[in-house]
Design goal:
The chain has helices at residues 20-25, 37-57, 67-72, 74-82, 102-116, 137-143, 177-181, 195-211, 222-225, 228-242, 252-262; strands at residues 8-15, 62-65, 86-89, 125-126, 148-149, 159-160, 167-168, 215-220, 247-249. By secondary structure, the chain is an alpha/beta fold. The two termini are 12 Å apart. The protein binds zinc ion (ZN). The site of zinc ion (ZN) has 6 residues, from loops.
Length: 264
């Protein structure tokens, strides 16, 4: 499945949501001066810290960005592109496609691709907001030239969707910083795990996936992972992963291209 000498792959992905998850949930929230400030921390402070870490450690990453966030934070997205990271689509307003009609979903995708096309010549990946794809998503992705999805939780290895050219890079909540550091059952701000706990959880899952020759897709949000202690933990995590033999840490499009070629 992997190139010679490689046992497992790792994709360190970043979902640069900005304010969109909150504004799409509650359009009136902008009237509360501090309500969106945690979200604003992501592009303002979290991304520069993450970019400098990735630069120091020579990590190539994929940033999934809602079109609206790219419009709101042009300079942040320019810095991401200038650093050589992959830019991929994450809807326009951050509305999960399963809540949309087919036409609405297609309009969101087209608008997102138009905006992101201003920052990157090659946008070939898509992650739905909250991984919430619809029954139309795969067909729409293929129609608009998207070559991989990173939304499904049904495997530990990448695969090609049946009857489609679209490659899947599977995710899971265990490998998502939001559920570890933020998400409670009734309240989005219900827990604060220590970084040590989360690093242990992720290393356990990574080592087990590595043994099985799979793909570890980490989903990070700058407003969450971008807190100073968590950025330090991310540096330690990357170092520990790299100390394991046969690990390939790279961008999603590189992994998806490899899978497509293997499967051709
Ligand atoms: Zn998101």
């Amino acid at each position: 499945m992997w190139p010679e000498g490689i046992r497992s792959a790792v994709a360190l992905t970043v979902d640069l949501d900005g304010e969109t998850p909150w504004t799409v949930k509650d359009p009136d929230i902008a009237a509360q001066p501090s309500a969106l400030s945690m979200a604003q921390y992501g592009p303002r402070v979290g991304v520069p810290l993450i970019l400098s870490l990735f630069d120091e450690m020579a990590v190539a990453s994929t940033f999934f960005i809602p079109g609206k966030s790219a419009e709101d934070y042009t300079e942040t997205v320019e810095a991401i592109a200038a650093a050589g990271h992959e830019i991929a689509a994450h809807g326009y307003t951050h509305t999960p496609p399963f809540r949309l009609t087919r036409d609405e979903e297609e309009a969101e995708l087209v608008r997102a691709l138009e905006v992101l096309g201003g920052f990157s010549d090659s946008v070939t990946g898509y992650r739905a907001p909250v991984y919430g794809v619809s029954v139309h998503t795969l067909e729409l992705l293929a129609k608009h030239g998207i070559r991989y999805s990173s939304n499904f939780m049904d495997d530990i290895k990448p695969y090609r969707h049946a009857g489609s050219e679209v490659v899947e890079l599977p995710v899971q909540w265990i490998m998502d910083d939001w559920t570890q550091f933020v998400h409670g059952s009734d309240d989005w701000l219900a827990q604060n795990a220590t970084s040590a706990h989360v690093k242990q959880l992720w290393m356990e899952e990574f080592r087990a996936i590595h043994e099985l020759g799979g793909l570890f897709v980490l989903t990070l949000h700058p407003q969450v992972i971008g807190r100073p202690s968590r950025v330090q933990m991310l540096a330690e995590l990357i170092s520990e992963m790299r100390s394991v033999e046969g690990v390939w840490i790279t961008e999603c499009n590189t992994i998806a291209n490899h899978v497509a070629q293997e499967d051709a």
